[in-house]
Amino acid sequence: MNTLTLNPGDSVAVALTDLPGGIAAGHKIALERIPTGSPIRKYGQVIGRASADIAAGDWVHTHNMAMSDDARDAEIGADVRSVPPPEAPATFQGYRRADGRGGTRNFVLVLTSVNCSATVARRIADAFPDDALPADVDGVVAFTHQGGCGGASMGGDVALLQRTLAGYANHPNVSGVLIVGLGCEANQIPDWLSREGLSAGPTLRTLTIQEAGGTTRAIEQGRAIVAELVAEAARSVREPLPASLLTLGLQCGGSDGWSGVTANPSLGMAVDTLVAHGGSAMLSETPEIWGAEHLLLRRAASPRVAADLIARLDWWRAYADRHGMELNNNPSPGNLKGGLTTILEKSLGAVAKSGSTPLTDVIGYAQPVRGPGLTFMDSPGYDPCSATGQIASGANLIVFTTGRGSVFGSRPAPCLKIASNGRLADWMDEDIDIDASPVLTGVSLESMGRTIFERILAVASGEPTRSETLSVGDNEFVPWQVGAYL
């Protein structure tokens, strides 16, 4: 009664409560004798091998279990299934944009082309505190970064930054944008706007500090421009929109042994519901699907989609080798303390948040989502960096599961956080929106999934998340920097 077996073929169970011998809730207990070198199974999948003889009832963790690189065969597309339409269409109260997309928030952004313009951008935004804005304007936010110069004028990182900035400038949760540059940087504003298919106009304005005459003059001019953008944004009003206009970014961080049992599979149920309504979801963090990629390949909608996912995994293997790293460097210390032992175990739980519908596309970091359904966006496993890419790709809402606790928030896309266990939900109640632990006491995954889906619609309609109440999200803009700086 004190342990939970997740699959009849498992060799370990999960402790439901703290057990004698210092075994914490969420950690693994051997169900049978496991000789040295034998595979250890959880979720019906291999999560590692015994590095020492393990007796039935023993605690199974880093002292007697090691990473395993067993082959994971996947029959491409074997688990692709049709998605039945819902009985009634779901809607939310959102902002209809001119191109037909739907916004869940209504922001004005101050973007920077280069780190040199960061201070000016922040002082422009500081003149517009949230409590002084019109009712239908959610905020004026400055997003700064460390890039934009110091490398080749069109090196990979500059191109990646340009794509990320363009995704924010063209985001459905954004009404107006001011882009602030220094003037001499590698990331020249007119060049990257043109390259990304954007152009300056009434709702996309530009300013360079050198042309403005210096810091103070640039701040004054920028504040005047933003005041005009705020006035225009205030003209927007919420209206009923179909749930098909929602795009979720799926994140998990500070995971524990319960993340793959409660929060992630419950979120997966909500994702399946959204996809049935014609909506979109993005799974990301490529290093954190390592060991579970065969499950996604079985859901690949076409051989091309499967090949694209395999190509990204091959790139990450080479990237890790090039930098002298191992993909099993992840789990983090907090993940280990929470009961996760190998990246295989963590990945199997993480993939559960993507649900069960077909994997319809694989895209690069910050590339626009190209259609409804489940998309995989390539990114590192660092949550702020991954979420930044998802927002740039078009996510108008982030859903973030956690077992150890997370204080992450994001703008312009609100972030809804789900706790995997009740202890966390109570202890960090000011940061957690939904407690998924009732799954352990009889609430079905389907029921918890419905609860999450209904909360997604409420947040999309304007209900503030806990991170929004705490005004978190301005400093979590972290574009991916892959290359070297000279």
Give a brief outline of the structure.
The chain has 486 residues and is an alpha/beta fold.
Task: Give the helix level as a range of percent.
Answer: 25-40%
Number of helices: 14
Number of strands: 21
Beta-strand percentage?
A: 15-25%
* Distance between the first and last residues' Cα: 59 Å
The strand order across the widest sheet is 17-18-16-15-19-20-21
Q: Indicate the low-confidence ranges by residue numbers.
A: none
Overall shape: it is globular
Classify the secondary structure makeup into a structural class: alpha/beta
Whole-angstrom Rg: 23 Å
- Average pLDDT: 94
What does the main sheet amount to?
A: 7 strands, parallel
Describe this structure in words.
- This protein has helices at 118-126, 156-169, 189-195, 209-212, 215-233, 263-276, 293-297, 303-322, 333-337, 343-351, 383-392, 422-427, 445-460, 466-469; strands at 3-4, 12-15, 28-30, 39-42, 45-50, 59-60, 65-66, 91-96, 102-103, 107-112, 139-143, 174-181, 204-208, 239-242, 247-252, 280-283, 359-363, 373-377, 397-402, 415-419, 434-435.
- By secondary structure, it is an alpha/beta fold.
- The strands form five sheets. Strands 17-18-16-15-19-20-21 form a seven-stranded parallel beta sheet, with helices on both faces.
- Helix 1 (118-126) crosses helix 5 (215-233), helix 2 crosses helix 11 (383-392) and helix 6 (263-276) packs across helix 13.
- The model has no long low-confidence stretch (mean pLDDT 94).
